[in-house]
Structures are given as structure tokens and as C-alpha cells.
Write a structure and sequence with these properties.
The protein is built from 10 helices and 4 strands. By secondary structure, the protein is an alpha+beta fold. Helix 2 links the parallel strand 1 and strand 2. Its EC number is 2.5.1.18.
Length: 233
């Protein structure tokens, strides 16, 4: 019986393992949320079709796709499900149904914008600059005004419940990724500027933003080539 308890404890304490290519993509948000929660994790980088095929053949991927995260004895797939599990487990998903629903709405909207950033390096060179202009317009006209208004009206440090949540983590990730391409993207949003600084200084997030962390750099040609090697027929 003691051995069984010890085994369960070891399983609970085992670091999550992330399966994905060595780059941002759809796994980067998972890295952000784990880091914000103060959870150390391991990574197994996919570099070849054979590695992906091995996961698929071993029934490790429910829908034959990554991201996949091994955590608490499970093999989780589907990015949003992974994010919800980690956020709920580590108190980043609100205190009641109303807060969770607000967080979910904010996250879903932000992920729509983040998806444009994720796909940008895979566009043809001639289309990339046009897409940067399009991303900026969508951020400035559709998404950022929503969060600027929320922050202005409730006057709190975080988006929901005056505590750090999944919504804050995903929004900061998206803001910083956009600032890499458009440094003055927040010029017209003073509350978001202040908010971005405050959330960046949450100790666990500040640590993740420091050099040497598992935060991935902007996608380069090597990352794009690796993704094609792993996923393209």
C-alpha cells in the first residue's frame, strides 16, 4: 500500500513533457502558462516525420496531432484543452463560473489574433509584410480596444477577478509577439501599456522572460523548415 502511494506521488510530481518542434507554434502558449504557474517542464522536440509517426502509431495522439503534453498520467492534446487543464489546476482559471467564462471569452478572442502571428512565418515572403499590416489593423481596431476598455473601467491590475489568470498570460504573450514586429503597437492604449509592464513583472513571468528560459525565440528559417519536415507529406 505504501508502495502504491509512493508511486502515485512520483507520478504527480513528474514534470510535464511537451511534444512539439523546437519553436513557438501552438505549443508556446502552453509553455507560457506552465511558466506562469511556476511549473518546470521537459520537452521532446520533433524533428522528423518518423518521430511524429511513432507517436501516432503508439496511440499517443488522440487525433493524430500535436501539441501533446504528458501530464499527471495523461497524454493531453488540443491546445485549448491543454491550457484549460493547466490553468484550472494552478488557479489561473477564475474562482467561479462567471470568472471562468470571462477568462474563456478573452482567451478565445486573443487566440484568434495570436493565430495570425503563428501562421505568419509560413506565408510567402511577398505576403508577409501585407499580413503584418493586417495584423496591426485587427489588433488596433478590434482586439486591443476591448482590453483597454476592460482595464480602464475596472481599474484593476489583471483582467478578471484582480488576480493573474490564463487571460492575462495569453494576452501578454500576444502583445509581446506583436511588439517584435510592430514596436509601437500599444501607442494608443495607455492602460494596456501599463498592464503589459505589470504582468511582465509577475515573478514567474519575469523569470520566463529572462535569457536562458524555455521561451522560444521568434520563428526563423530553421524552425519553418523543421515544421515542414515533420508535418508535410
Amino acid at each position: 500500500m505504501r508502495a502504491g502511494k509512493a508511486s502515485k506521488t512520483a507520478m504527480a510530481e513528474k514534470k510535464p513533457k511537451l511534444h512539439y518542434p523546437n519553436g513557438r507554434g501552438r505549443m508556446e502558449t502552453v509553455r507560457w502558462v506552465l511558466a506562469a504557474a511556476g511549473v518546470e517542464f521537459e520537452e521532446e522536440f520533433l524533428e522528423t516525420k518518423e518521430q511524429l509517426q511513432k507517436l501516432q502509431d503508439g496511440n499517443h495522439l488522440l487525433f493524430q496531432q500535436v501539441p501533446m503534453v504528458e501530464i499527471d498520467g495523461m497524454k493531453l492534446v488540443q491546445t485549448r484543452s491543454i491550457l484549460h487543464y493547466i490553468a484550472d489546476k494552478h488557479n489561473l482559471f477564475g474562482r467561479d463560473l462567471k470568472e471562468r467564462t470571462l477568462i474563456d471569452m478573452y482567451v478565445e478572442g486573443t487566440l484568434d489574433l495570436l493565430e495570425l502571428i503563428i501562421m505568419h512565418p509560413f506565408l510567402k515572403p511577398d505576403d508577409q509584410q501585407k499580413e503584418v499590416v493586417s495584423m496591426a489593423q485587427k489588433a488596433i481596431l478590434r482586439y486591443f480596444p476591448v482590453f483597454e476598455k476592460v482595464l480602464r473601467e475596472h481599474g484593476q491590475r489583471f483582467l478578471v477577478g484582480n488576480q493573474l489568470s490564463l487571460a492575462d498570460v495569453v494576452l501578454l504573450q500576444t502583445i509581446l509577439a506583436l511588439e517584435e514586429k510592430i514596436p509601437n503597437i500599444l501607442a494608443s492604449f495607455p492602460h494596456l501599456q501599463e498592464y503589459s509592464v505589470k504582468v511582465s513583472n509577475v515573478p514567474t513571468i519575469r523569470k520566463f522572460l529572462e535569457p536562458g528560459s524555455k521561451k522560444k525565440p521568434p520563428p526563423d528559417e530553421i524552425y519553418v523548415r523543421t515544421v515542414y519536415n515533420v508535418f508535410m507529406p
